[in-house]
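Q: I'm writing up a methods section and want to include an example of the input and output format. Could you take the sequence below and give the corresponding predicted structure tokens, formatted cleanly so I can copy it straight into the document?
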Amino acid sequence: MNPSEKNDALIISEAVRLVNEGVEVIFPVKGRSMLPFIIGGVESVLLTRPLDVKPFDVVLAYADNCHYVVHRVLSMDEYRVVLMGDGNIAGREYCKREDICAKVTHVVGKNGRKRSLDAPFRRFAQKMWFKLLPVRRYLLKFYKLYLLLKKF
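A: Here is the clean output for your methods example:
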């Protein structure tokens, strides 16, 4: 494990410890796996205790016995949870129910503004995004181009 991965693991373990004590934690995210709903490197997420997790919720989980992810729950049964990032087009991760460390309830913009993931329109958009999985690759390319042009 390189020093950056050790730092990340330490930060995540501290965030999980605080969440388990009932503290809400604003946690920065990186990467593009949750585009277009969470922009890594720009936005953060609000982590809470993982109570009442259901399909389409976003969670912080220890996936595939090797790494932490902030991804959406696709399905779950008594033992196993299937996760997938909104910005992914095929890859899925798997974990046990007890490997869900926190539930994401809000996205926090760089201006500090919180957006609830449970708002009715947002829930609808998230479910529609899942149904668009066959064409998601093209939609993500357009979205990434939009983000790039927005910088100028």
